[in-house]
Amino acid sequence: MASTRDRARKLARLKLDRQQARRAARARRRRQLQAGIGAAVALLLVVLGAVWFTGGFDGDDPADTTAQDVCTWTPQDAASNDKLKDVGTPPTTGIAQAGTRPMTVTTNQGAPITASLDLAGAPCAGTSLAFLAGKNFFDNTKCHEITAEGALRCGDPSGTGLGGPTYSFFNENVPSAPEPQPSASAAPAPAAPLYPKGTVAMAGTTPGANGSQFLIFLKDFTPAADAAPQYPIVGTVTAGQATLDAIAKIPTVDNGSGAKTKPKTDVVVQSLTVGGIDTGLEAPPSSAPSSAPAS
Q1: How big is the CA angle at 134 (ends 129 and 137), to the nearest 5 degrees?
Q2: Backbone angles phi and psi of 133, in degrees to 5
Q3: How many CA atoms within 13 Å lie on the side-chain side of 138?
Q4: Where is pLDDT greater, at 100 or 37?
Q5: How much is the mean pLDDT over the chain?
Q6: 191 confidence band (pLDDT: 50, 70, 90)
């Protein structure tokens, strides 16, 4: 009988030990679960605090786009085109998308020509012109063409129409072609020119691949009805129109390819500078790329 009682007590003790082990395991799982939940809540509070601190919940404030990539600068191979000049590339962030910048083109043909660059309509073109001006890219270069559209073409240091920096960028702010007018007995009112006299536009070596070359229209121009506009507008001349009028009177001669587009008298850009950003506020944003020459 004693051995039977001992065996029963032993079995009871083993059962109790198993129950206590299961209780301890459940307690450990509860503590681990509670610790994991606590850590997740703490992390969430840290993240929410950081978002709140940086103004992430300020829904009424306009988004700051200056820290975002705005422009894409596509590399061009100078090995396959020796007319390209490597001066680096403009920044991709910190690009102003509002306001204007003054551009001053001093030539050998009279008073300086001043234009206002539209940063809202063409932020990448304005940024590129400011960047290249800061590298003295345009200084002492010839405007190699007066185009058939009546525009002075400048910005190619090689003077061949093939030159530019070792990057390109896509079109922006290309005007839309006017809608065709239905026929009527009464003549429709003449539409405003797509490129008014004094318009500053980019001119890629191929359409849509803009670099450093730009046009200043010496007269009003609208493409033919069956030709889509291709020049992205970057600004408007604000002073120096008398100089442009004098340039418009320069006769053109054969450019070597059979086209009479080369100015008979050289038009030389002695210097081209781009000033600071005018946003209409007292202080322009400090993140705007500068056109000051690099040291």
Answers
A1: 70
A2: -60, -40
A3: 30
A4: 100
A5: 84
A6: confident
* 3-state SS track over 78-118: CCCCCCEECCCCCCCCCCCCCCEEEEEEEECCCCCEEEEEE
Name residues whose C-beta falls within 8 Å of residue 74's C-beta, 6 or more positions apart in sequence: 167, 168, 169, 170, 209
User: Bridge-partner residues for 260, per DSSP?
Assistant: 254
List the one residue out of 139, 140, 135, 121 whose CA is nearest residue 165.
135
DSSP string, 11-66: HHHHHHHHHHHHHHHHHHHHHHHHHHHHHHHHHHHHHHHHHHHTTTT-TTSPP--T
Nearest C-alpha neighbor of 127 from the set 135, 269, 64, 112: 135
* Confidence class for position 60, pLDDT limits 50, 70, 90: very low
Structure tokens at 34: 């509670």
Q: Which residues contact 290 (CB under 8 A, 6 or more apart)?
A: 130, 134
What's the confidence (pLDDT) of residue 287? 47
Residue 244 near residue 115 (C-beta atoms within 8 A): no
At 198-230, the pLDDT tens digits run 999 999 888 789 999 999 999 999 998 878 889
